[in-house]
Amino acid sequence: MDISVVIPLYNEEESIPELFAWIERVMQQHGFSHEVIFVDDGSTDGSWDAIVRLAGQSENVKAVKFRRNYGKSPALYTGFLKAEGDVVITMDADLQDSPDEIPGLYDMIVKDGYDLVSGWKKKRYDPLSKTIPTKLFNATARKVSGIKNLHDFNCGLKAYRRDVVKHIEVYGEMHRYIPYLAKNAGFTKIGEKVVHHQARKYGKTKFGLDRFVNGYLDLITLWFLSKFGVKPMHFFGLLGTLMFIVGFVAVIIVGVSKLWAMHHGMPYRLVTDSPYFYLALTTMLLGTQFFLTGFVGELIARNSAERNNYQIEKEI
Ligand code: UDP
Ligand code: MG
């Protein structure tokens, strides 16, 4: 099969029939064999009924419905498990992404050899309250992930070689960083294609402004995991040791300077009267804590099921 289209959706009943008809039209024009995988993320409107109707009319429909709303990432993850096409395309259900982009994306994967191609909504039809923070978000994501050529990490419209979706694990709200997940899994040929974007036709957005806060926190988590996930001691151990040494040296200085003053008959105070003593003490304590955190992290990493989960590309 050439293409799997994975569509996560949550309460998008009005858009579904229109989107499906459009996808079918494009596929027929280009002679692609394909499947459309709807993942209903616990919709409470008529979305599932609409999907069942489509499945009755067409053999290209596969669908899953969650019992409750889990989020876009779990929906994508589940769709990826089911996908059988050589190229997997994800798109939002709200008609903001255009199925007309599918052939172009397909060619970039198959002919140009990209692992992943992300859409770029260069001209976007969203409120300013969203587009401005998005620019900032993407600049940070570029910096942290080291994927310098992407302008729009969170674009719902993306294409993947099947291998990629079978070897990355999208969870929580990590759908914003799929290119980074792919890169960490060793898929480095990541491209971008400018895509058409439209204003939402039906319904309303499912994400509020908290998306930016959560997005940043997730980015920090990913950065940390990819850098120190399997070797926490390299971060906490170093930090802890340095802090401990600084504190220790400072305590010595505080003590010795008192002894020196006593010895030379100069006025002196109890070391506990000096603020430096407490600063030094705190630094030593924190240093020890960091060190132990690193050690506990190592013990956890040792037991993790992921610890020897490598991406083997070729074997003979
Ligand atoms: N979505 C989902 N589960 C959720 C939230 C959103 O499956 O919990 C789907 C939604 O139905 C749509 C896509 O994810 O197909 C993108 O959502 P939305 O259009 O609300 O996001 P925006 O375009 O505002 O970024
Ligand atoms: Mg949308």
Structure description:
With 316 residues, this protein is α/β, with parallel strands linked by helices. The model has no long low-confidence stretch (mean pLDDT 94). It has helices at 15-30, 47-57, 72-82, 102-110, 128-145, 162-167, 178-184, 210-228, 233-263, 275-303; strands at 3-9, 34-40, 61-65, 87-90, 116-120, 158-161, 190-194.
Keywords:
10 helices; 2 domains; alpha/beta; 316 residues; Spore Coat Polysaccharide Biosynthesis Protein SpsA, Chain A; seven-stranded mixed sheet; binds uridine-5'-diphosphate; binds magnesium ion; elongated
At CATH level 3, the topology of the largest domain is: Spore Coat Polysaccharide Biosynthesis Protein SpsA, Chain A
Oligomeric description of these chains: single chain
Order of helices and strands: EHEHEHEHEHEHHEHHH
- DSSP strand (E) fraction? 5-15%
Counted up, domains total 2
Low-confidence stretches: none
CATH class of the largest domain: Alpha Beta
Average per-residue pLDDT, rounded, comes to 94
What is this structure, in a nutshell?
The protein has 316 residues and is α/β, with parallel strands linked by helices. The protein is built from ten helices and seven strands.
Give the SSE map.
Blueprint: E1 3-9, H1 15-30, E2 34-40, H2 47-57, E3 61-65, H3 72-82, E4 87-90, H4 102-110, E5 116-120, H5 128-145, E6 158-161, H6 162-167, H7 178-184, E7 190-194, H8 210-228, H9 233-263, H10 275-303
Parallel strand pairs: 1-2, 1-4, 2-3, 5-7
Antiparallel strand pairs: 4-6, 5-6
Helix pairs in contact: 5-8, 9-10
The structure holds uridine-5'-diphosphate (UDP) and magnesium ion (MG).
